[in-house]
Specification:
CATH architecture of the domain at 19-104: 2-Layer Sandwich
Number of helices: 4
Helix content: 25-40%
CATH superfamily of the domain at 19-104: SepF-like protein
Distance between the termini: 33 Å
Strand content: 15-25%
CATH class of the domain at 19-104: Alpha Beta
Shape: globular
Number of strands: 4
Structural class: alpha+beta
Order of helices and strands: EHEHHEEH
Strand order of the largest sheet: 1-2-4-3
CATH topology of the domain at 19-104: Translation Initiation Factor IF3
Largest sheet: 4 strands, mixed
Radius of gyration: 19 Å
Length: about 120
């Protein structure tokens, strides 16, 4: 049983004012222009970087640096999600982090998220 079905790109048309989340695999500097163009159109891009990191870490760092400078120039936001993904959002969006939300909130200073359970038992 399949929970999600992949739509064919040809059968899925967006209207002009609609934006989408685009998933891409980063291969190197040759992809920077395409990624930047997609973000400039107002779309969110999720980049898979695991393959490039496995092949050539120096090329990955150069590519990410190029993406960072472009995104920051145009007011977007970029963040790594673990070691496998990078998310880039356009100028009309910002990425928030739970840690920042706790810092900006008016909660007590000693507030911290609960510890995960260490034991599993039955009732």
């Amino acid at each position: 049983m399949t929970l999600f079905k992949r739509r064919k790109k040809d059968n899925f048309r967006l209207e002009d004012n609609q934006k989408e989340v685009v998933t891409l695999t980063l291969r190197g500097l040759q992809d920077v222009d395409m990624v930047c163009e997609t973000v400039n159109k107002g779309n969110v891009v999720i980049l898979g970087v695991k393959d490039l990191a496995r092949l050539d870490m120096i090329r990955l760092k150069r590519t990410i640096q190029q993406l960072k400078s472009h995104v920051r120039t145009f007011g977007g936001d970029i963040v790594a999600l673990g070691k496998e993904f990078v998310v880039i959002v356009p100028t009309n969006m910002k990425l928030s982090f739970i840690k920042r939300m706790f810092e900006d909130s008016e909660l007590d200073d000693d507030f911290s998220p609960p510890e995960p359970p260490t034991e599993v038992g039955t009732l």
